[in-house]
Specification:
The protein is mostly helical. About 75% of the residues lie in helices and about 0% in strands.
């Protein structure tokens, strides 16, 4: 039997996880930041801000394909976020997918 938490408790947990993500990020501990950001994203019911944070952590950890897959899977969450569009273009460049990057930019 699992434990059920109310929304204020989940909110406090997410706030704590966000602080841990920022702390790990500032210390360049990107794998740890990814771990905490992933938990926060799931608990926050896939909020756009937490999606960006997780994608940014993957990017800083040089997991460019994971960023692309994450953003494709949750396209509806961050569809209007220009930061995510920039991150997609940067990932495509890092993956040396130049033609795909150009197509992506042309369709903006």
């Amino acid at each position: 039997m699992g434990v059920t938490y109310d929304q204020p408790t989940i909110s406090r947990i997410c706030d704590r996880l966000r602080k841990l993500v920022q702390d790990a990020f500032q210390r360049h501990l990107y794998s740890s930041a990814v771990f905490y950001a992933d938990k926060c994203f799931a608990l926050s019911n896939y909020s756009p801000e937490d999606l960006y944070t997780l994608a940014e952590c993957y990017f800083m950890n040089r997991e460019y394909r994971r960023v692309l897959r994450l953003l494709k899977e949750h396209e509806s969450v961050g569809a209007n976020d220009d930061r995510l569009k920039l991150l997609v273009a940067q990932c495509l460049l890092e993956c040396k997918e130049y033609e795909e990057c150009l197509k992506f930019i042309e369709n903006l």
